[in-house]
Amino acid sequence: MKLNGSTPEETKIAAEALDFYYGDLQALKGINLQMAKNRITALIGPSGCGKSTFLRCLNRMNDLIDDTRVKGRVVIEGKNIYDPDVDEVAVRKRVGMVFQQPNPFPKSIYENLVYAPIKHGMAKKGSSCDELVESSLQAAGLWEEVKDKLHQPGTGLSGGQQQRLCIARAIAIRPDVILMDEPTSALDPISTRVIEQLMLDLKQKYTIVIVTHNMQQACRIADDTAHFHMGELLESQPTEALFNNPKNNITQDYILGRFG
Amino acid sequence: MTSNPFNDPGLAKRHRKARRFRRTTQLSIAVTMSFLLFFLFDMGRTAYPALWQAYVEVEITYSKAATRFTSMAVGKDYRPLVSRAWLRNIPKKIEADPSLMDTTQTQWVLATAQVDQYMKEHHNTLKPDEAVQVEALREQGKVALHWNTRFFSRGDSKIPEYAGILSAIVGSVLTLIVTMALAFPLGVMTAVYLEEFARDNWFTRFVEVNINNLASIPSILFGLLGLSVFINLFGLPRSSPLVGGMTLALMTLPIIIVSARAALRSVPASIRQAGYGLGLTRQNIVKDHVLPVAMPGVLTGSIIGLAQAMGETAPLIIIGMIAFIPDAPGSFTEAATVLPAQVFTWSGMPERAFVEKTAAGIMVILLVMMTLNAAAIYLRKKYEIKW
Predict the structure, then answer these.
(1) What's the ipTM?
(2) What are the b/e assignments for B264-293, b being 16+ CB within 10 Å?
(3) Any idea which architecture A12-255 has in CATH?
(4) Of B268, B278, B289, the CB nearest to A173
(5) What pLDDT, in 10s, does the model give residues B283-303?
């Protein structure tokens, strides 16, 4: 399979008629969206449009919020993750997440990376952990910078390094999908560029869904872009098509910066 | 003359006001500190003599008669000067070392409280001829103030020169062990449940309100509760560190719960999110990531609760821990007393010699308190996680 944007893609995640409620407030209205394997899908839209809520539906992070309800299906590799026989913790092992603020555990870089794999039984203390740490940090492009201070606290790194540590930590549990919720909005432009390049490398192995407020970022890295507005999915197209010929008027206004 | 656009005609007034405000704050800290220093100084000055105790060098005759009437062991002239309590130990001494029998030895023995107080120039009821006798002995170097090891190595006595604080220290330690063994795990677990697991509904709010109420209940009521439940209902031995510790645990629980909850709440939510995002379970996250971050706060709160429990007297009086305890308790179920109760007992004694013992007891309490607080600061610094 070729990995550039023009090949017909294989669907990795499909949301089908997905409704989401915070109490009585309906935050997502009948979302149907397919996200393709080994591609980056960007979710754009103004604040409060439901894009982050949608992202968090993809690994059942919203289950942690009291008084919420989901209707519809999210199918990952043929299985609806909201089926009663699905364990949400197991879903999150396969669908990793990177957050807006870098949030390394207040432990050493090494422990940050190996804690979850050890708990999941994917690595044993000792040399297999060392290998895992090196490979994850290599994949996140952080190895050269931190290889001499693996046992220093992860919170002592710079913001951009911390975010790459968080990406390395997400990769260390070998997920299929990585969800990123505005991963660069707390970072400076140089760190942002490093992480964008990293995402482009990572899509060879992973399916990435990213929420972003930055439309240039969506243009630069996303293969597909979906535009959310007031809890609805207005339009989803390959990125180039969406930015050049938006079908929807609101989308056109939004990408031209007339509102949002 | 150039005009100054930044001139404020009210400037002098404003500065005066600021100075006055600053002085008021400085004055209040000065008043607070002077009260504290006065208290410490006065207490230390009163307590210091208790560290020394008068001894006389006399001939002691170990004989059959002395085992029956212990005052026979001392020459008639010296009898009013030697402590009765010390003489009472003669039969035991002979029992422990039979070779002493029918010997006469010149040795330093404990003097009565009156001699002791006379030597310290405190108020005393020494008769004039006895005073002359003591003066004469002092000339010969046969009466002197020695370091008071007895105070730290013996239990209570009704005879002031014989009274020590060890049994109260041991009683306090045993009681606090029970308190911490119960209150710390229960309190931290409750806080973890309320903060990390419970949903916010009427039940948890009800529990929360009641925990806060519990913290403000007068401590003597806990004593009544301990008396009626632990002693009368469960039939546990009264005056024991077990019951005292359980009662104080009830009192300390709300303090630990409230401080542990605050510590857990201050752990950033992003840590929990990070854990969930990695497919970790709630138990993993709470145990390995949230609790370690919250631990300094939890420990600080617990030690403050412990210090408060250690200074508590009223509930322990109710459950009988004000008992007269001459020997340090050896187990959790033996009758015991605690430091503040011991101080309370001594403060009510008619003999003048108990005044300095009372002050010394207070100094011991303060010392233990300061040690606990220092431990709190040390633990907080040690486990503090740098961000």
Answers:
(1) 0.88
(2) beebeeebbbbbbbbbbeeebbbebbbbeb
(3) 3-Layer(aba) Sandwich (3.40)
(4) B278
(5) 999 999 999 999 999 998 999
